[in-house]
Amino acid sequence: MASKKSPPSPPAAAPSPKLPAETHQTAVEGEQHLTTNHGLPISDNQNSLKSGVRGAVLLEDFILREKITHFDHERIPERIVHARGSGAHGFFQPYESAADITEAGFLQDPKKKTEVFARFSTVAGGAGSVDLPRDVRGFAVKFYTEQGNFDLVGNNIPVFFIQDAMKFPDVIHAVKMEPDRGFPQAASAHATFWDFISLTPESMHMIMWAMSDRAIPRSLRMIEGFGVHTFRFITAEGMSRFVKFHWRPTIGSAAVVWDEAIKISGADPDFHRRDLWEAIERGDFPEWELGVQVIEESQAAELDFDLLDPTKLIPEEIIPIRMLGKMVLNRNPDNHFAETEQVAYCPSHIVPGIGFSDDPLLQGRLFSYLDTQLSRLGGPNFHQIPVNAPRCPFANNQRDGLRQMQVHKGRVAYEPSQISPPGAPRECPVHGFRTHPETETGEKIRKRSETFADHYSQARLFFRSMTPPEQNHIASALAFELAKVEVVKIRELMLGHLGHIDADLQQTVADALGMPVKNSAKVQPAVSPRDLAPSPSLSLIGKDPHTLKGRKAGILITDGADAGQLAALQAAFKKEKAAVELIAPKIGGATTSDGTLVEPHHSLSGGPSVFFDTVVILASEAAMGDLVREAAAVNWVRDAFGHLKVIGYSPEAVPLLEAAGVELDDGTIALDGAKAIKGYVTTAKGGRRWEREPSLRSIG
Ligand code: HDD
């Protein structure tokens, strides 16, 4: 009932305010009706049921209640780790039969494509966190094979923080936001993380990777992936070998610089998700080769570390990668929640021809994922959700349970049975999965193997395999993160560990922190670190493919910009298979020299140069007066220069470069003719100008 005090209702005859036709969609004959979840057609989706137009809403309104109730339950528990992810559909196709090393069905026939769903994620942040924190990236792929689903649940870093699953909740609690204050979100730069790490020497190798450029990738399309653990490949004849899985992006790997990552996080928190989505929408399908390092069981004993230790890798220079085939991601999800959120990967999902090793981290994971899906997806039937369901037939005697979607028929849900109908599921000793019959002996014991005890040699190997700019980035990242740790003894302990990795690194980080190196805490390694031969294949800069393929160029245009140059640049980028976006001072457009009104993708303030791999400024002299006084324009250029990008510019744009403090070098190229465009493109293919960095930025 309307309150007596309220002003009188307008007369019933008063016309209700008119909404634009398209916001008030009513079905016409033959169109689908909006209905309740139970199929009742809904006549009005704009107004709740009230007593009078200004009166109280009635409890009777079951349509309102159903709509709100469903909305209230739209969220499910987010993943405890890897909560923020982006997914895509695609396929995997082998190059040739791998029957000599595995009987896995999807690796036998080069003509056969296997459907996949891949999900890439950050680890520490919540589902709504940004895409570019310094963090490990998850790289999970579900292969829907004819022998059931194979889930390869890896990361973009080939080693891990810990050696035993017993420590997983600890390392995750340490990195996640601190429980009393609820921050920092998606960041390892805080005391609890470094407290745990400084007391966990086995993390040191992983720390080198996590502080490297790998942890701030330019694009999910450019990350490498690793299975991390040692797995087994088993042939049809029962021959078993150890393997390490590798994913390699065909367009090469690249990272952003830290200052850029921070700015991207503000300008576009969805930077990676958008990039993946848009690349697939424009037909620029991301591709990865899948390969394995194959290790004969007899070879395993000769390696200078234990294959069961997930904090170690095998340099490619020692055991090369055999490429097995290619994955192409060619379809975006239809629905982010239904697919990317509900996809449930489990390392325990394997197929005949693939087996586990006794890596204690892997063994713990074999339990954890199924367990977490039970609560995350509300019960034991999550395999029936379309993105999780095998594409091959599946049948067993498991029944009922929460969220049961199948209607199982018949009276027999067990075996053996004499009354089950013909065709009832039976076990299959010939084609069924068999565990590799490894001999296990040993006393029950809670103890770490001594073969896991060398925590510094491979950390050193990684650091010394980096190019000088990459080494500087590791030192800078360590200094940045440790500077956020207010507890001095944690910093001193970390400096102590760094001393065992590399004395120069220790000194550089100490200097950047403004702490005397002599204050480093004494750390007694369980095994003295050794000098292993560097592995150049671990460096990203060292294997930069020098290409613009899959990269994005940004062209800043103003009124009067040279139309011919714009067309020539667009054609040149297209030839290189690079995407191009235009930026203009105003989103309404810029009129180029031939009088064409060009519509940009971004206005200046909405399209900062951090979005692009290389940039061009095509400006007229007349536009300079305004641009040099416009912070968005000056920052656009200053950032592009500071982020070491190759910059092409029309000679008229020089005042803007000067206002931005750009010092012309080999990576700043005046576009004063067709030849100049060619030279600019060749230089831009070379990627960032690392030689510019030391004059712009100190370590720390
Ligand atoms: Fe994990 C999710 C990768 C160790 C327990 N993990 C998860 C995802 C990836 C990884 C990519 C996200 C999958 C998706 O996109 O849905 N995890 C790894 C790697 C590890 C690793 C490469 C070490 C080599 N994880 C690890 C351990 C445990 C877990 C040791 C527990 C004992 N991981 C989980 C989990 C998650 C998970 C709690 C959270 C959500 C989920 O599983 O589905 O079960």
Could you outline the blueprint of secondary structure elements for this entry?
Elements: H1 62-72, E1 85-94, E2 114-122, E3 137-145, E4 148-155, H2 168-175, H3 191-198, H4 204-210, E5 225-226, E6 231-234, E7 240-249, H5 258-267, H6 271-281, E8 287-295, H7 297-300, E9 322-331, H8 336-341, E10 354-355, H9 360-376, H10 457-464, H11 468-483, H12 488-501, H13 503-513, E11 552-557, H14 563-575, E12 579-584, E13 590-591, E14 597-598, E15 602-603, E16 614-618, H15 621-627, H16 631-642, E17 647-649, H17 654-659, E18 668-670, H18 674-685, H19 693-696
Parallel strand pairs: 11-12, 11-16, 12-15, 16-17, 17-18
Antiparallel strand pairs: 1-2, 1-9, 2-3, 3-4, 5-7, 6-7, 6-10, 7-8, 8-9, 13-14
Helix pairs in contact: 2-3, 3-12, 4-10, 11-13, 12-13, 14-18
The structure holds CIS-heme D hydroxychlorin gamma-spirolactone.
Count the beta strands: 18
What's the number of domains?
A: 2
Contiguous helical run count: 19
Oligomer: single chain
CATH architecture heading of the largest domain: Beta Barrel
Function: Decomposes hydrogen peroxide into water and oxygen; serves to protect cells from the toxic effects of hydrogen peroxide.
Catalytic activity: 2 H2O2 = O2 + 2 H2O
Enzyme class: oxidoreductase
Protein name: Catalase
What does this structure look like?
With 700 residues, the chain is α/β, with parallel strands linked by helices. The protein folds into two domains: 1-23 and 51-172 and 213-450, Beta Barrel (Catalase HpII,  Chain A, domain 1), CATH 2.40.180.10; 552-695, Class I glutamine amidotransferase (GATase) domain (Rossmann fold, 3-Layer(aba) Sandwich). It is 26% helix and 15% strand. The strands form three sheets. Strands 1, 2, 3, 4, 5, 6, 7, 8, 9 and 10 form a ten-stranded antiparallel β-sheet that branches. A six-stranded parallel β-sheet has the order 15-12-11-16-17-18, with helices on both faces. Strands 13-14 form a two-stranded antiparallel ribbon. A hairpin with a 2-residue loop joins strand 3 and strand 4. The longest helix is centred in the middle third of the chain and has 17 residues, at 360-376. It is globular. Bound molecules: CIS-heme D hydroxychlorin gamma-spirolactone. CIS-heme D hydroxychlorin gamma-spirolactone binds at residues 79-82, 85, 119, 121, 138, 140, 153-155, 160, 165, 168, 228-229, 310, 343-345, 361, 364-365, 368-369, 372-373.
